[in-house]
Amino acid sequence: MIRRIPSHLLAVLMLGIVSQVGQVVLLRELLMVFHGNELSIGLILAAWLAWVGVGSRLGAVLVDYVNRPLFLLMLSAAGVLLTLPTTILLIRGLRGFFNVLPGVYLALPDMIISCFLLMAPSCLLLGAQFVLLSRIWRESDRAEDSSGAGKTYMGEATGHMLGGILFTFFIVHYLNSFQSAVFAGMLMLAAILLMTRKLKMGATHLSVRFRPVLLGLLVFAAIAFPLLKHVDGWAYWLQWRYLALQHQLVEIHQSKYGTISVVQREDQYGFFQSGHLIFTTASRETATPGLEEQEAATFAHLVMVQHEKPKRILLIGGGLRGTLSEIAKHPVERIDYIELDEALTEAARPYVLPKTLEALNDPRVHLIHTDGRLFVKAAGKKYDMIIVDVPDPATAVLNRFYTKEFFREAEALLNPDGVFVIGATSTADLRGTAIANRNATIYHTLDSIFLRVLPAGERFMFYFATNAPSQVSLDVFILQQRYRERNVETEGFSHQHYHTLLQPAQLQRVNWIVRNHGRSPSAHLEGPGPVPLFPGTIAEQERAEKQLPSVEQRYFINSDLKPIGYYYTVMFWDDLTRTRPRETFKRLLHVESWWILPLVCLPLLAVLGLRMAARHTGKRPDTNFAVLFAVFTTGLSTMALQIALLFSFQSIYGFVYEMVGLIVSMFMGGLALGTFFTHRYVADKANLRTLAGVQLLIAILAGLIAVVLPGAAAVPSSTIVFLLFSTLTFVAGLINGIDFPLSAACCMALSRRAEKSAGTVYGLELFGACIGAALASAVVAPIFGITACCLLAGIANGAAFVVLLICRRRYA
Amino acid sequence: MPEKNSSDRGLNRREFLQAGLSGGGALCLASVFGCTRERRMPKMPPAETAQKGFVRPIPSPWFSKLDNARVRCELCPKRCELAKGERASCQVRINRDGVGYTLAYSNAALLQEDPVERNPFFHVMPGSRALSVATAGCNLSCKFCEVWDLTQVAPEEVHAYDMPPEKLVAHARAANVRAISYAFGEPVVFYEYLSEVAALAKGAGLLNLMHTAGYIQPEPMEDLIGKLDAANIDLKSFDPAFYREVVGGELEPVLKTLKLLRDAGIHIEITNIVIPTLNDDMGEISEMCHWIEDELGAGVPFHFARFYPLYKLSNLPPTPVSTLDRARRTALEAGLKFVYIARVTGHEGENTFCPVCGRIVIKRVGFVIDAIHLKNGKCMHCGTEIPGRWA
Q1: Of A75, A51, A78, A29, whose CA–CA distance to A178 is shortest?
Q2: Full-model pTM
Q3: A69-92 vs A108-141: helix axis angle to the nearest 10?
Q4: Measured between alpha carbons, how far is A186 from A704 in angstroms, rounded to an integer?
Q5: What is the DSSP letter of A403?
Q6: ipTM for the complex?
Q7: Chain B within 8 Å of A225 (Cβ-Cβ)?
Q8: pLDDT tens digits, residue range B221-241?
Q9: pLDDT tens-place string over residues A515-542
Q10: Can you list the positions of beta strands (E) in B244-367?
Q11: Do A280 and B22 touch (CB under 8 A)?
Q12: In this complex, do A277 and B278 lie within 8 Å of one another by their Cβ atoms?
């Protein structure tokens, strides 16, 4: 017998695609306006999940009330086609709305407000569509149960997976944001038109009448599609008016890593990635190229003299701003220059100074476009110097360059007398707790790998690390001598600059701070101690350091599995942007592992209390609560596990855009397959015992991941690493997929309302995911470690298991 | 004229949204987290020990009493009126039981030796060293502040050395510096401390240098003049709107301070950080330089400093060097004789050129003096007198 393919299946798949594409596009657009740190990524994700959850719940109420699911679906699809591009337009104008000065980042409250307000319309509509399609599917099956929701869930997850692949491999390369959003919206409209092509006048009267409107809208969108290029250009112009007033927007490049914008002001080019200034260069017309790019020259010549005779150099990032050409002026034999984003190099080529172009064409220079960590893992060569010039560790991805594991990998590539250099933003005297914590953490993490580490700098702190202590120095005369011996000819830098760069008193103060800070249990809360009036010379401080108490590992060692570095960077960003004294992030540092207890105890108490209260009523509020709690924890746990797996994958494997996209798709694939299996093979879905079993399964999987992750770094083959993470992510999705139809069925058995159950379960699961995203990325991963994210998931679902067991007897 | 409170202007769109959405939440949270600064104030530390939050509050004469135990601070043009327990926007001046106190006294949060060029004085004892001193707090809120972690915080939030005036001057003498420089932070907010230290320092033969935004009332400034040897005033822009939006103050009082210093014959230098798009209009720079030339004299050294992305303006590109060059040309065309470029180490504009013979009188690389062709305050090439404190 040939099974008929339901006409709404395509619409369900498209819902997944629109959701995935819409989410990524809005994320990229909002990151252009917000500071691109891990907090803003988490916030955008949380807002998306929360609103889609609310949308599904509201959709359930609406469909019950209006009772015209198809018409509502048509309306909402038309709505999404309009709201998505409108939202992008509003995001581009957001800085103008808040009227912030050029160069100023939006503060946390502004980010939260704008993020939640802007995301609402599209997300509410998409959330509602899930429930509407569930109803349509159920009516098409002539079923009264929650199977429609389960099937929709499965189809949507498949759509998400396809959407992810479509975006990663096609959309990001060929379409701008407006085109991406409209393209996805058009797919949805087309699917609905296809689905309704055989409708006749009758019960679906309104839908039939609305069909030509949809068709008209689709035709209009198709005609307008080429014009979206101009809309995009105009919207960028609008955005840049507020991002960098009076700077001429020269070019926009779409890169898979974020939009690259080139702006010009007088004889200076500024390069922005996702709206954030990454570097400036002098234009070819400039009369003073050396002075314009002085920061790059200063960086290069202070760094290069840290080695007596550097021959083989590995430079990770930063070369285009002028550093590469300055490094090449030293008598080196080979420079391997790693840049992640090829689009950035291509965007910069037409504008950088001839000396940078010459350096790129220098036979000694080897430009490689790859992830720095991926390169270091597989390089198999030895270097005299490894220079890391990447942005501050504001995200989990960037934090990978500041971890113990990376430093160890880099150390293995260095010759015995080699020097490793890295740096980060700083302040002259490291007074703030956030910046002192972050920069002391970098120091202590380096110090745990290398024999000697010398920090230096005011606005920017350099760290010179080596296992050959005599190699690095902050002695102006030694450095000047090395510089002179090399006969470097450059503009904008001379041997005299070392005096200005290395002021003894300031050097001694910052050295004292980073060496002494982080050695008491409450140092991360209190900030650095008082610097003595006479902190002593660097040599004296190095001797005294041996007698100091040991470093607090938990808060002052940055590692792949405990990326505290990005937490401190977010905390520092908050210091810079807040308008009133606020210590939100410092307060969060007080968090203790036992704070998890309420998550375990409160639901247990609640369920026991509800049992007692409803003993003689014949109702089952405890069971209802238990099922909903299980739904919530599943959402929370699977999101926490996804974050844990993604963060670790990026550290252990390396950051490869397509691979990360595939890993995310694996989860969605697992989700779809899990739902499918439950439908096909589980006869009694409304069974608390089965649901409890799934909670236990999630808890066991979380525990298993917690055990596997620390050992995964030791796996030598990158293929095995990829397979391992794909499998774990797939299994996490699979169990999540198994859970949904069971929860929906249990909920339906309790409420007897299919769409209400579907909306509630879907919404609550997304709400759990929203909390999971916020908790895991903002607090648990950086403060307790990535393994703790797994434990959080394990404990949460363990609690759900117990709660369900308590209720089981009365309902099963 | 006191500065208007933001509430006087009504709500802007951001405030409206924030108020609407977060008002309720804030009320709830305030009860949990809210604690007044007064409650957090630590006790006096033992002598000789630098300590976080060390304050030595003293009553200040620069307060006038108002009704209902309110006081008004008369030190800066904001003239903050404070109810009991309230603190001024500078974070260091407070009403305690109807008496105005300063919390910025004897608690130096910044104490360091610097070349005098770093403070930045180019016409005062070149190559000498000064002891820089500052406390926490500031009466302005520049969005491009370089020491925001010192100035935009209360004294309770930073480490401070217990440095009464006598001890500070003794410290300066022991360090064998030529001057005490009230710099890096905002000296206006530690006026009482500055005033006492300056009197003692003068007696000890030390110069008193002040680097300030000049946002101070005329009367306290006049009181200080007898003790000062030189002042570097940050004239941040010549646009009143820039002062209001980016600096958090008014332009007019700064100009008054400059005139006051001119009348008193104090050596003045002026610093202007050129920020792309915000205050780099050449017409405005020209107007500012003409005003200086007319009102203060062509011999006032003027420093154009390069802006680097920092603090709230972290996402703004640095000033193109060509903009600084144009600003310097504009200033020279306006008649100013000593125009410098700061924070572009090695730039020709770091040197002092004789306005008559055009040759280099003082050659600098950053804060380092490379060569001095100056004798008794005169150009060694042509004998032209160069204004400044040379001995």
Answers
A1: A29
A2: 0.91
A3: 160
A4: 42
A5: S
A6: 0.88
A7: no
A8: 999 999 999 999 999 999 999
A9: 999 999 999 998 998 888 889 999 999 9
A10: 267-274, 302-306, 339-342, 352-353, 360-365
A11: no
A12: no
